[in-house]
Amino acid sequence: MPGPSRLIALLAALLAASSARSQPAPSAPALIPMPLQLEVVGGPPFVFTSRTPLVVEPGDAEARRVAGLLVEVLRTSDEGAPPVVEAETTTPSVRLLTQSTRDDLGAEGYQLSVSAQGVTLTAAAPAGLFYGVQTLRQLMPPRVEYTAARHRPLAVPAVEVTDRPRFAWRGMMLDVARHFFGVEDVERVVDLMALYKLNRLHLHLSDDQGWRIEIPGRPALTEVGGRTEVGGGPGGFYTTSDYDRIVRYAAERFVTVVPEVDLPGHTNAALASVPELNCDGVAPEPYTGIRVGFSSVCVDREATYAFVDDVVRELAARTPGDEVHLGGDEVRELPPTDYARFVARAQAIVRRHGKRFVGWDEVAEVDLAPGATVQVWRPQLASTGQAVRRAVDAGARVVLSPSDRIYLDMKADSSMVLGLTWAGLNGVRDAYDWEPVGMVEGVPETAIRGVEAPLWTETVGTVRDVEFMAFPRLAGVAEVGWSPRAGRSWDEYRLRLAQHGPRWTALGVSFFRSPEVPWPLGGVE
Ligand code: ACM
Q1: Which of 60, 192, 319, 521 has an alpha carbon 20 to 30 Å from 3's alpha carbon atom?
Q2: How far is Cα 7 from Cα 9, in angstroms, rounded to an integer?
Q3: Which ranges in 123-239 belong to alpha helices (H)?
Q4: Sign of the torsion angle spanned by Cα atoms 194, 400, 425, 178
Q5: Can you tell me whether residue 118 is helix, strand or coil?
Q6: Pairing verdict, β 54-56 and 94-98
Q7: Which helix (H) or strand (E) holds 495?
Q8: Mind listing the pLDDT tens digit for each residue in 131-162?
Q9: Contact between 404 and 378 (Cβ < 8 Å)
Q10: Average pLDDT for residues 63-90, to the nearest whole number?
Q11: Given this model, what pLDDT does residue 283 score?
């Protein structure tokens, strides 16, 4: 039992800690990503009650579908789901309008007007309606995320928002090869991405430790290559119908799946499954460690290109998005000329199947086909800069995934049990406080498609771990990808970010309570 003076000192320390943490609430709503224009109108809020209908135009099936997704957020156990109707109502309502003449909003922009009389959401296209709904959701108190709880009435502050994204590609990559994640886990990731207006889910479907996608006619890939993972666990793979389900679920939330099969390196699982991919024809043992750079398919065998053709044909047929990613990173087993020969043939195969080629920044060393995208993970290397500038001059475009900023598998601070440190510590500020233009000198904004945060899963075994590594940092990446450069400020952002803690609590998201962020004390409002 401590003496009285120790107790007083302890109390004083506790008080100091709590007042240091209680920052003034930001006056504007804590939206992430911050919209292009946000005006807090003042005046009484809109109050959503059990009688508030969602109104769509007659026959606007996509608006009805997007309204249906909002209904799922607004459903309560005591009052059920609000109605979606096609007729004007006299009561205050939430109206979702598609106006194809609103070119100013682009394919993903929206306008949102909230007053005590009602909510009007206007967009030129369905994706804009969906993003407007995410903003409306973030304007509601976090308790709305408890979908089975009683949470009405809900007050929404009176605002005028006009919004559209800065970049078209706002992504996250999930490595399902080092550890496997089932369909429902991936759907959970899509849900959390969509709340932050992210629109590309890059699935890293193969690596040394696992092959995770069924390829008809090549059952050994999943029978052998799918049966383990880092640490020797059971692994797994997506059947074609699983993959279709992920693609469909993502598309319904305006997220495009970018499938990656990593080639010619990071291929031990394929080599273990298909002996003729090895130059000596001998399949290696499955690999469950975390070394990189030791494997390559045999680039001199035609069997390799027949294999790539089978894989790309299947991915292209099942993927509605424009891109197929073929990796190309960390190939230490091949001389540069062999590597270049392989990449040239691989990208031709992608084009032949009607898709555009994406590769990690090593592929910039090779002459790229028109429409190719280079995913830059090592912008700090002079050699990367040189190669990427050359590729961009020849017509390639760039997605930025700087490993020393937004690799979500790096620890955010040294206290974290999960994560690695080979690219350093990627704190919450690091992931937010950077600018894509200028990151690779000489690459203009017009050549930058956007940003993507990779999550490699050597130390990440469950979807809880995925959440813990992704949040809060992924929210910062979402804002870098969406919001205008002018006005972004870490000091302001961290206060806004703090307000998302209670929402994640309500959603059951396991997030890292970083000391960089002044999380509010107490429960969910
Ligand atoms: C990578 O981190 N090897 C792209």
Answers
A1: 521
A2: 5
A3: 126-139, 183-195, 219-223
A4: positive
A5: strand
A6: parallel
A7: helix 490-498
A8: 999 999 999 999 999 977 888 889 999 999 99
A9: no
A10: 92
A11: 98
